[in-house]
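Entry 12.
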Amino acid sequence: MTSQTDSDNKNKQDACSTFVPFSYSHPLHITERSLPHWQQKGTTYFITFRLADSIPIDVIKKIKAECELWLKQHSEPYFDDEWCQYNKLFSERIQNLLDAGSGSFILKNKAVLDIVKNALLHFEGKRYKLGEWVIMPNHVHVLVKPLNSWPIEKITHSWKSFTANEINIKIGKTGIVWQHESYDHIVRSEKQLSLIELYIINNPKECSS
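Predicted 3D structure (tokens):
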């Protein structure tokens, strides 16, 4: 498991000092696949992407069906208590499943871990600003603020497509490395930003306890 080093702290501080909270009064773009994906210019995202075998398929299907039902029963704009309920029912459940540990855990391999770390850092300051981040045995958490109008889905696609190819070469295998869809959440307030930062920092401790 690895996260930011001391030399990366300036990047984190820059990202936090320019934090822009989400606002319903500003233009918002929403797309939906298995999960809803919200985009708003200038905001910071909490991203989680995971190995393809990190959560059993039947569990994911169950959560997806429940998520679709919840979205049908609630309409925008969502109130704070609705967002809390949504995160508890779906986001937190997925994070807890990842922390419980399942799958091949190839990110424990130092060479594989370095591939992901270098990919995260490659366009830092050019396409995005990184906040806290951590690479766990079967998933990755990142706080990221896109720069120069780079869409968040292009940033995550770049990370995953490049690393998947390099990882397969490194371990001598072929096939799917990452779950196709990433989890992304627009950070809604400075308080929430602080809570997510603390969660990322403590994630290795939670998984080892």
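Annotation: The helical segments are 9-17, 57-73, 80-100, 110-122, 152-171, 190-208. Residues 8 and 152 are 21 Å apart (CA to CA).
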